[in-house]
Design goal:
The structure is a homodimer of 169-residue chains. Chain A is of the alpha+beta class and 169 residues long. Chain A has a single domain, classed as Electron Transport, Fmn-binding Protein, Chain A (Pnp Oxidase, Chain A). The first copy, chain A, is built from five helices and ten strands; from the N terminus they run E-H-E-E-E-E-H-E-H-H-E-E-E-H-E. In chain A, strands 1, 2, 3, 4, 5, 6, 9 and 10 form an eight-stranded antiparallel sheet that branches. In chain A, strands 7-8 form a two-stranded antiparallel ribbon. The longest helix of chain A is centred in the middle third of the chain and has 9 residues. The radius of gyration of chain A is 15 Å and the shape is globular. At the A-B interface, helix 1, strand 4, strand 5, strand 9 and helix 5 of A face helix 1, strand 4, strand 5, strand 9 and helix 5 of B.
Chain lengths: 169, 169
């Protein structure tokens, strides 16, 4: 069903799809959750394949991420799951079981304990090797004004990609 | 000679080539310099195309970067410029005019003032929109031991990609 890929093989698809939305999946002590992300980076740091994602302090995912220290990213290609991306980007896992509400299937990751979303095509499993809260004073003024007028800054998570695979058609 | 590309089009080539080396070019108040990098990320953050690079405090490039607040990355494809990447990754711009020593041609960027290296194939011009010094306490212990035993940490620069282009064959 899934074919392993080298971490960089679908970098272009990862970067292109982000603006349309991807699912960031996390498993805390007592629950799993997914949220829609539209920002992220892929590359090589410290000699390791790295996927970078960002989570605001206010998010339920932030608490789960701090418990788990690992995450997966599941990406629909070809414009699928628009409605589900919309729901998971506006509702909180504190109020909803998003998997249930959206009929999304959480299946076990190949390497880590966090699930992936089986309705998606492209998947990355990541272990956090570095994280850092943003430092507002060092940010471009316009970006600060546009995205952080409420002071709800992001924590930046650098995940080592420990598995990457794509759905076989 | 050069063809404009969408910033994400060659993401895979960017990520793949990094392990073999790319040139990070900076223009300070009084001089230009280039250094070899093997790490970096590409993606979308704050709704902008972003290239992330890292520079250690000890590097001559660090001082120039703080003056310039912009940089370019020039990437040879197909295994070219190995000798030049070796030189520019081990010698300091404090001691050498690396462009002269390596016969590398610095030509003006299309959008920003920092030059690119004309012997390379793939080029990104970037304006720094965010930067942050690494926080050692939040880093994976093995990475800390392997790369920072001398406490010479990196500053992480997030550059908005304002131009990207490739040499036409």
């Amino acid at each position: 069903m899934y074919k392993d890929i080298s971490f960089e093989e679908y970098s272009k698809e990862f970067v292109s799809q982000l603006a349309k939305g991807a699912f960031l999946n996390v498993k805390g002590k007592d629950s799993i959750n997914t949220m829609t992300i539209g920002w992220g980076n892929i590359g090589v740091i410290w000699g390791k394949p790295i996927l970078m994602v960002m989570v605001r302090y206010s998010r339920h995912t932030y608490n789960l991420m701090e418990e788990a220290n690992e995450f997966t990213v599941s990406i629909p290609l070809n414009g699928q799951l628009k409605k589900e991306l919309g729901f998971c980007g506006t509702k909180s896992g504190r109020d909803f079981d998003k998997f249930k509400e959206c009929n999304l299937t959480a299946i076990a990751g190949k390497v880590i304990d966090t699930p992936i979303i089986d309705e998606c095509d492209l998947h990355y499993e990541c272990k956090v090797v570095y994280k850092q809260a943003m430092e507002p004073g060092l940010l471009d003024e316009n970006i600060n004004k546009n995205y952080y007028s409420n002071h709800d800054y992001h924590v930046i998570y650098y995940g080592e990609i420990v598995a990457s695979y794509i759905k076989q058609s």
